Amino acid sequence: MARYFTEEHEWIDVEGDSATVGITDYAQGQLGDIVFVELPEVGSMIDKGKDAAVVESVKAASDVYAPISGEVMESNEALEEDPALVNTSPEETGWFFKMTIGDKSELEGLMDAKAYKSFCDSL
Amino acid sequence: MSETEENEQQETGTLPLDAWHRGKGARMVEFAGYWMPIQYNKETGGGIVAEHEWTRSNAGLFDVSHMGQLMVTGDKAAEELEKLLPGAIATLKPGRVRYSLLLNDEGGILDDLMVTNATPWIEGDEDAGTEGHWGEPAYYIVVNGAMKWDDIAHLREHLDDDVTLTHMDDYALVALQGPNAATALNRIMRGVPEQLVFMQSLEHDFGEWPLRITRAGYTGEDGFEISVPAEFAESLCDRLCAEIEVRPAGLGARDSLRLEAGLPLYGHDMTDTVDPVSADLAFALTKKRRETGGWMGFEAVKTLMESGPKERRVGLALEGRLPAREGAEIYAGDDKVGRVTSGGFSPTLGHPIAMGYVDVAHADAGTDLEIMVRNKRLAAKVVTLPFVPHNYYRGS
Fold first, then answer.
1. pTM of the shown model
2. Can you say whether the dihedral through the CA atoms of A75, A77, A78, A79 is positive or negative?
3. Facing residue for A59 by CB, picked from B252, B321, B322
4. ipTM confidence
5. Which chain B residues touch A83 with a CB distance below 8 Å?
6. B343 contact A CB<8A
7. Residue B37, min C-alpha distance to chain A (Å)
8. Which residues of B154-172 are buried (b: 16+ CB within 10 A; e: fewer)?
9. What is the pLDDT of residues A50-77, one digit of tens each?
């Protein structure tokens, strides 16, 4: 399983033809206490770089973008009950949704863990 | 943005406690032209919700030095201020504080403020044969940071030349807020809290620090606002934070606390196109002065009080967890009947709350409405403000 990152602070785990998407620890730290996550509907098509989900913190609403294009297969129902999972476990149990990989070449422009770390350090 | 505009942009200012906040791991954001702490480091108990809850249960220390601290002095100070403020200033006793507004001729709100009668008591001198007496009338006014330059210009334009307006820009202002604020302050400045109830103010020399301490705030909790010369601000904050009840709290918690307390925020819940009657701030118009007038905006406000406002500021409690933010539209059935002016998640209540303006026909407490957020309609009910009861100290 390979994990990639975007400059918008989403992570994406790729496993075969499907992928799991969430936001990074850095992102949750910036957002602060999360009170609500609006996830895309299962079966909907999302486009790379376009809005896929919305995270509401105490402070403000922030968009989460689709790291690649594809169809939403599953959304993390646990976030409905406990949105704070995104704060406590952003890169594991606080995942957002699973999706198909529409176009594998879209993964090419994404960062690996090392590149993402130096990207964050440069901010 | 054109080049000229860019050149005119002011550089973000730093306030006396800037380094102190950064030393505490604060995340600094630009607010009202200054770098201000929005929240403190999560590792040391910070974060908006943690700071919010700490303030509701213990005491939060907020830096509000961005606000404008003004002093208006002169024999005619009260009389002159009454031309601009709709509240009674001439009958405000020394040491008393009043919430008031600056209005334009159309009755629109230019800013909201706190005014304190800060007239000093001059001790008598037996040797010189003088008796104790009140000194030159002085009024200490605290205005919103984002509005202070406009307020100063407005006051300078309209106040008679016989009164003096001083911008106390060499002072910091901190607010110690929460149910344990008095306990903590009393341990440092023994006997001071008991001299004050809500909306009273005094001067207190703490060693070489000349402080003005006012029992008031913007969180709905008991607490104190302390005006301190900039050079002593860090030492004062260190002293306060050394008490077990006190932790620093940022702008984020300040906003969620004031929203729960139903307190309007200038530039959002009131603007220069909103009048005090619609804003549900008629309590700031002293009864007698509503009749006698003589203040800017009186004619317009009088007409409105007679005809009644078209819309009113209300509190809205939302179902679910999705907050409605400023700008969201409010519906009754198919009709758009209002707009949200402040909204967020209430840490104390565990659900979203909002303030907004709603047509008077739909503004009564208990009315069921809907708020549109990203094409979803959220169920909301008009509720009486505040959302969370005030906990002011009005005497034992």
1. 0.92
2. positive
3. B252
4. 0.79
5. 321
6. no
7. 13
8. bbeeebeeebebebbeebb
9. 999 999 998 889 999 999 999 999 999 9
